[in-house]
Amino acid sequence: MAADRMTRRTLLRHMAATGAGVAMAPLLTHAGRLPVLAQQPGGFLYAAQEVDPVSLDPHNRSNFSSFQAFEHIYESLVAYDKSMNIIPSLAQSWTTPDPTTYVFALRRNVRFHDGSELVADDVKYSLDRVLDPKTASAWGSILRPFVDRVEVVDRSTVRLRLTKPYPPLLGWFAYRRGSGIAKAGSAEKMNFNVQANGTGPFALKEYLPESHILFTKHKGYWDSSLPYLDGFMMKVLVQEDTRVAGLVTRTLDYAFLSPEGAERLKGAAHVNVMRSLRAFVTMLRTNPSRRPWSDVRVRQALALGIDRKAIIEKAAGGAGVLSGFIPTGYGDWYTPADKIPWRHDPERARRLLAEAGFPQGFRTTIKASPQYPEFISSAVVIADNLKQIGIDAQIQQMEWGQFVRDTGAAGGSNYDLAITAFVFRHDPDGYFRFYYHSKDPNNPGYLNPKVDDLMDKAVTTVDRRERKRLYTEMERILADEVPYMPLYTSHKVEAVQRRVKGYTPMFSDSREFFKETWIERG
User: Fold this and answer.
1) What average pLDDT does range 193-222 have in this prediction?
2) Residue 13 CB: number of other CB atoms within 10 A?
């Protein structure tokens, strides 16, 4: 691509041609977004955080609850707008002299929360840290094969040299899971688990694990019109009953809820409930490294034995849509659910089990965490389905941290079946590489050289239509071999007090638009 400055128009042309970022169409379905009136600066907001962040390290934390905290503190070179298009952020513009070089011109007069100025050394420090294997960043491992080096051109210019074309690069930055820019040397001077120094619209005032995260307005923010709030607190409220009660009594201004929780607010006229589609794919994971799940016929029988529509109705309260491996609604990348060749067919499932040597079925376990109640209720429906084809599936409930350890590489992939979810990813590659590439440490044992080859080609292919074709072909193979089984893409339910204005739900589940939220007073 010609080395021209990326205005909004040229940027969108570039994204359409190369597939950079997500480039989604507007995705709000029936969110009921509040009208934007004349903003009133000031005020303080109380929000609920469903799961404790655990750590605020912007570079090595892979859990979504950490991101939900540090997304207000740290920014990256680019960002997503409300329609999930990529726009400038700390980089005001960039050029691509050739397919393996990106040159970013930094925005001037950007200040960290400690008052120091953002310079190119800060960008290099942050990227070098996330790329360093010692940092143990899951998100850095995505980028590491493609980045040769990060160079400081001058105080306000950074150059990335790639080893090969990497169309998802801009999306990786906008994603901010690993790409947040911290002050050079800060990780060595402070405890990144509970302290922070970013450039975002809000500064960290206090983080008390399992209790709350307190943010204050960054008065030196580079966009002088934002944020409107003086600050906000995110209270760690794991129990939905507590979140509902807080909304009813007006001690909470914002909370994420289940459909059942939202039903309990019907009589609360002072609360506005917003519903939208979210990039949250609930997944049933098999363990291909463990018998009998190493037999593809058993995994195929599983897929035929499960009624996904019943899971949506009974376990998700109807708040979801059928999904493939890429969540429904993810731009035009996803495969429509009616193209995924899974039908509820218990008779055929029993025949496949008999062919695999299990005419009487077998016993297995399903691991899930009550931290996400819909996972447990999904497991109940699945266990009932599997019983009808001769599989006795016992549900094992465990604390979320133990679940993550047991089902991850560090725990030796210690599970038969497990229910989890894939949240928003910066690129279609993010829904595949971690779980199905034979060389990724997170892969529990699914090996298919054809899938490896398709994945490696797709991630470096510049032509967007060809990338989409490769991912569609990969999905067909995965749907046939069923290493994981996508169940549904969720609807998101968020509730805010009616005095809270300007908040925008995001398909990515980000809450970053607290920076444009304000409190109606008077």
Assistant:
1) 97
2) 13
Asked whether 183 and 114 are in contact (CB, 8 A), the reply is yes
| Bridge partners of residue 149, in order along the sequence | 161
- Euclidean distance between CA atoms 259 and 257, whole angstroms: 7
381 Cβ neighbours under 8 A, 6+ residues apart? 307, 310, 311, 314, 315
Q: How far apart are CA 71 and CA 495, in angstroms?
A: 20
Number of Cβ within a 10 Å radius of residue 101: 15
Q: Which of helix, strand or coil describes residue 419?
A: strand
Q: Which residues contact 266 (CB under 8 A, 6 or more apart)?
A: none
**Cα dihedral 378, 379, 381, 386 in deg (nearest 10):** 140
Q: Give the neighbor-by-neighbor strand order of the sheet with 157-162.
A: 91-98, 101-106, 157-162, 147-154
Residue 21 predicted with pLDDT over 70: no
Question: In angstroms, what CA-CA distances link 280 with 308, 429, 495, 508, 517?
Answer: 15, 15, 18, 8, 24
Q: Domains of the chain by range and CATH?
A: 8-235+498-519 (3.40.190.10), 278-491 (3.10.105.10)
Look up residue 334 and give its DSSP letter: S
Residue by residue, DSSP assigns 267-306 as: T-TTEEEEEEEEEEEEEEEE-TTSTTTTSHHHHHHHHHH-
- CA pair distance 394, 321, nearest whole angstrom: 26
Rounded to whole angstroms, the Cα distance separating 75 from 183 reads 11
Query: DSSP assignment of 220-266, as one string?
Result: T-SSTT---SSEEEEEE---HHHHHHHHHTTS-SEEEE-HHHHHTTT
Residue ranges of alpha helices (H) inside 30-115 are 64-70
Nearest to 478 by CA among 290, 348, 299, 355: 299
- Pick the most confident of 21-25, 37-41, 458-462: 458-462
Q: What is the CA radius of gyration of the chain?
A: 23
Helices of type H across 430-463: 433-436, 449-460
The C-alpha angle 513, 243, 191, rounded to 5 degrees, equals 60
- Distance, CA of 284 to CA of 421 (rounded, Å): 8
> What residue has token string 């990039």?
279
- Cα dihedral 503, 180, 219, 69 sign: positive
Task: Give residue 434's pLDDT band: very low, low, confident or very high (50, 70, 90).
Answer: confident
